[in-house]
């Protein structure tokens, strides 16, 4: 890509064992200081990062296929983000938008209202994290409808706060021991093509019919405030719902006055080869939650949606001390500008076009690869016991991931069964690094 990272060579380089001695020393300090509940996928401590490279404190340079979990879509320390955020930092760091407002907050909301799907009148609110955005979307939907029930799906991930734990499907590690959870949450089967009993082609329509039937018989649509879904499930294993599922759900919501909420926290901001993933099937959500990729790595999140729904909440009913922090807003404006000027939507598609055929070729060669899926720069492989046996294979996954980590590729996993490798490179990664990262992954399968 055009962006230069002059002082951070865009080259993989492994000069110590992984993790190296400086990282291991830091890790000892960490164990004595940091709560054990916080994990790290690859405990090499970071010194610098940019483009497609993460450099650790031992001088090792890793190819980045994780983007800090789909956050640094525009690249780490993106020059535009750094410049605009630095300028803001020097002017003022915080006033609290609820005390003294500032233009950056308004400008980010204007941009989100313009860029999110649908040309209806919209409003936005800015928050700190994805979980906080989801919580606020539920608050807004309940306030606007006067109803309480929230419908979510198998394999869903919506965060780690009390309400979002209830919305999240997977027990370990997200929920175990942390109950009681919030009430009025109802879970439906997910349109999971690879594991749908009657096959992937029937999956979308059949799963939609099931959800409609269950909502109708078990909850009553007149009691449902919101249907909340990730247009491609993230932590659940990059599950792209069967075709027709999302449009059918959106239509059902429209018929029954239910607020259709797309959680685009992981899929948003060019990641999937559309600016937002629900555009793929022309779905226009009533509310959309965003975070991760919004501000090039600074903490920011948002709820954007129909003006009449967003404005149903009484004055003072929404807010927070740090929500829409001025530096995070400046970073978001720079990130959004970068997505446009560097054509990162197109770039995400090109990344998918480069990765998917090679992953499909790997699946032909190795029976442990049960499924290859995803869109744009959000793609995954699901590992199983063997040909025709879909038993999850987390052991094969651990071996592949370890080889990649040891040889300089940051690689993340996902999935309810812990058997999905997910690829999330920064959208500004160079073609050479993309190619080399894929070669490392191919090598890891060859060694299985
Ligand atoms: C990461 C994620 C969240 C939670 O975001 P945080 O910023 O970690 O609170 C919510 N929804 C989805 C789809 C996510 O991927």
Automatic annotation (TrEMBL):
Keyword Transferase assigned: yes
CDD domains named in the record: OAT_like
Record flagged with keyword Transport: no
Any Gene Ontology biological process: gamma-aminobutyric acid metabolic process
Molecular functions (GO terms): (S)-3-amino-2-methylpropionate transaminase activity; 4-aminobutyrate:2-oxoglutarate transaminase activity; identical protein binding; pyridoxal phosphate binding
Annotated TM spans: none
Domain of life the protein comes from: Bacteria
Alphabetical keyword list: Aminotransferase, Pyridoxal phosphate, Transferase
PROSITE patterns reported for this sequence: AA_TRANSFER_CLASS_3
Pfam annotation, one family: Aminotran_3
Catalytic activity of the protein: 4-aminobutanoate + 2-oxoglutarate = succinate semialdehyde + L-glutamate; (S)-3-amino-2-methylpropanoate + 2-oxoglutarate = 2-methyl-3-oxopropanoate + L-glutamate
Cofactor field: pyridoxal 5'-phosphate
Family to which this protein belongs: Belongs to the class-III pyridoxal-phosphate-dependent aminotransferase family.
Protein name (database record): (S)-3-amino-2-methylpropionate transaminase
Classification of source organism: Bacteria, Bacillati, Actinomycetota, Actinomycetes, Streptosporangiales
């Amino acid at each position: 890509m055009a962006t230069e990272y002059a002082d951070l060579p865009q080259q993989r380089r492994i000069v110590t064992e992984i993790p190296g001695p400086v990282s291991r020393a830091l890790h000892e300090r960490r164990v004595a200081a940091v709560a054990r509940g916080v994990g790290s996928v690859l405990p090499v401590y970071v010194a610098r990062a940019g483009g497609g490279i993460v450099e650790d404190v031992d001088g090792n340079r890793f190819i980045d296929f994780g983007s800090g979990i789909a956050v640094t879509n525009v690249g780490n320390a993106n020059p535009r983000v750094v410049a605009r955020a630095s300028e803001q930092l020097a002017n003022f760091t915080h006033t609290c938008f609820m005390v003294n407002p500032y233009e950056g907050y308004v400008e980010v909301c204007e941009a989100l209202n313009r860029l999110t799907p649908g040309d209806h009148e919209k409003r936005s609110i800015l928050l700190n994290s994805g979980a906080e955005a989801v919580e606020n979307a539920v608050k807004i939907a309940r306030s606007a409808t006067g109803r309480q029930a929230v419908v979510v799906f198998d394999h869903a991930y919506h965060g780690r706060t009390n309400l979002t734990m209830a919305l999240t499907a997977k027990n370990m590690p997200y929920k175990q021991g942390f109950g009681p959870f919030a009430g009025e949450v109802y879970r439906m089967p997910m349109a999971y093509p690879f594991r749908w009993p009657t096959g992937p082609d029937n999956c979308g329509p059949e799963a939609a019919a099931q959800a409609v039937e269950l909502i109708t018989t078990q909850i009553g649509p007149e009691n449902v405030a919101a249907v909340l879904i990730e247009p491609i499930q993230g932590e659940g294993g990059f599950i792209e719902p069967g075709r027709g599922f999302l449009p059918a759900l959106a239509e059902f919501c429209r018929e029954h006055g239910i607020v259709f909420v797309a959680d685009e926290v992981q899929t948003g901001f060019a990641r999937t080869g559309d600016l937002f993933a629900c555009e793929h099937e022309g779905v226009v959500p009533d509310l959309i939650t965003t975070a991760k990729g919004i501000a090039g790595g600074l903490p920011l999140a948002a709820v954007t949606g129909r003006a009449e729904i967003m404005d149903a909440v009484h004055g003072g009913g929404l807010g927070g001390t740090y929500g829409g922090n001025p530096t995070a807003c400046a970073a978001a404006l720079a990130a959004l500008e970068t997505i446009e000027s560097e054509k990162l939507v197109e770039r995400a598609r090109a990344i998918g076009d480069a990765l998917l055929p090679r992953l499909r070729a790997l699946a032909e060669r190795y029976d442990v690869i049960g499924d290859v899926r995803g869109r744009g720069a959000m793609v995954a492989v699901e590992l199983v016991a063997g040909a025709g046996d879909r038993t999850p294979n987390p052991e094969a996954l651990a071996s592949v991931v370890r080889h990649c980590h040891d040889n300089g590729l940051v690689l993340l996993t996902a999935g309810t069964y812990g058997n999905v490798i997910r690829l999330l490179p920064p959208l500004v990664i160079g073609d050479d690094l993309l190619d080399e990262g894929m070669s490392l992954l191919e090598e890891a399968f060859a060694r299985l």
